[in-house]
Design brief:
The structure is a homodimer.
Chain A lengths: L4 H15 L2 H12 L2 E2 H5 L6 H13 L3 E6 L2 E6 L1 H31 L12
Antiparallel strand pairs in A: 1-3, 2-3
Helix pairs in contact in A: 1-4, 2-4
The structure holds a DNA duplex.
Amino acid sequence: MTHGDHQDEDRADAMFHALADRTRRDILRRVLAGEHSVSALAASYDMSFAAVQKHVAVLERAGLITKRRTGREALASGDVEAVRSVGSMLTELEAVWRGRIARIDDLIAQDPASSHPTERTE
Amino acid sequence: MTHGDHQDEDRADAMFHALADRTRRDILRRVLAGEHSVSALAASYDMSFAAVQKHVAVLERAGLITKRRTGREALASGDVEAVRSVGSMLTELEAVWRGRIARIDDLIAQDPASSHPTERTE
DNA sequence: ACAACCTACAACCATATGGTTGTAGGTTGT
DNA sequence: ACAACCTACAACCATATGGTTGTAGGTTGT
């Protein structure tokens, strides 16, 4: 958290948005399994080459895939580290939830007279 | 995988889309930490009540939060199981990637003459 | 009874998104 | 040299999205 906390949110927005489309998730799966050229990917879907190229661009801008040029081909490859960083965000959310449970447990421990554990954080 | 594979994709679309907005991620964090009424949430953001109410609805439709009625209030609570299920999807993607690495290792083992491990799956 | 409060939703608006076709330019193989 | 191929991007279009204000109806407390 050097200074750009706002940029982290931009990054998270881009990553989750990139994942919020089944075609893009499918592309990501393929390029995580191995490098594929954009036209090789495009052949797999019932839409124009340009549409697939845009999906690849969205994934690339989100940092979920990288491309390298080889002659006339653009070889796309999935970035597993980026996928893991998305996973970390979810793990942090789970940690927040665990905090809630811990707080409730503390309350119960402090007040053994409580009959039912009705949570009401405010 | 009873029969609705297409519905899983719908669900994934909804979940990732719900997470692809910083306000919604923030709301989710809060309601994972503890129940909050919609108006309590709305007070935290610089936008109209209706806008926040819509964000809550998006999260609810995605299954990431649940709401229960208490008098005139609608209490929202984060569903950690749903968050975990999103995490599982990412873990599956990582597994795909691990498959790629395993395949490359096999190739290297089969052909010890390979000088540099240039991957080129096609 | 009634004012204050909370929620839900309709109607509207500007912009983003996912798709299309068309054009241009670099690469490859014969 | 040149046809075939691959990529990139512009221009366009219909729809989705994130925001707004306004209205209506149930709940609460005095």
